[in-house]
Write a structure and sequence with these properties.
The chain has one domain: Nucleotidyltransferase, domain 5. It has seven helices and six strands. By secondary structure, the chain is an alpha/beta fold. The chain starts with 6 loop residues before the first strand and ends in a 9-residue tail after the last helix. Helix content is 40%, strand content 16%. A six-stranded mixed β-sheet has the order 1-4-3-2-5-6, with helices on both faces.
Length: 210
């Protein structure tokens, strides 16, 4: 995995100025203190450009101004690729005040085209589609620590470094199954679904009959 990373930069509080995404796509992931946005704070946002460059935006206080990161999330010209976008998008809305859009979720894509399995975690999808075995040991480490360890940095980078390639592989499968259009519609709905989570309907299906 480390060989895929050409440039890994830890940034305090925001992305640097002048970063461009030539392919129109940015890989995004978030690390939090837990999964409840109203209780657990956002600690880190990882951004990858698909060319081996990864920026780790670290929030060590309650200052979430981050104008460059917010600009990226609101940029309609750049697709934000997540794995299980729904949770990360809620935290972005809560702490950064921006619901990322447009988005692509590799977990949703996997569920639409890998119907022969229930294993849709990032590690599982990456291993099958790209032949890469990911180390998830740092997943439950303390992301609110004042200083990230080297193991945490490389774990965080691994969560975004493969997303562009995964998207390409998943798109090919979706095309072969004639499900690319329904996947796109699911991605378009994600900001609405995330907002429902944010305002209290995370465990309720409002489309259900009962």
């Amino acid at each position: 995995m480390k060989n895929r990373i050409k440039n890994l930069v830890v940034c305090e509080g925001d992305l640097p100025e002048g970063i461009t995404f030539e392919n129109g796509m940015a890989a995004i992931d978030c690390e939090m203190m837990g999964l409840n946005p109203h209780r657990d704070r956002l600690c880190l946002v990882q951004v990858g450009d698909g060319n081996g460059n990864v920026w780790l935006v670290k929030f060590s206080s309650n200052n979430y101004d981050a104008p460059n990161l917010k600009k990226l999330f609101a940029d309609s010209r750049v697709v934000k690729i997540f794995h299980f976008a729904r949770t990360d998008m809620v935290f972005c809305q809560k702490y950064l005040g921006v619901m990322p859009s447009p988005v692509y979720c590799t977990k949703i894509a996997s569920k639409l085209c890998r119907t022969y399995t229930e294993r849709h975690g990032l590690k599982n999808v990456c291993e099958e589609l790209l032949g890469v075995k990911m180390d998830k040991e740092q997943q439950c480490s303390n992301w609110g620590a004042p200083v990230l360890t080297e193991a945490q940095k490389h774990y965080a980078a691994s969560d975004v470094i493969y997303l562009h390639d995964m998207k390409n592989a998943l798109d090919e499968r979706l095309k072969s199954l004639d499900r690319l259009h329904i996947a796109s519609q699911c991605f378009d709905f994600l900001p609405v679904r995330a907002n429902l989570d944010y305002i209290g309907w995370e465990n309720s299906d409002i489309f259900a009959h009962h």
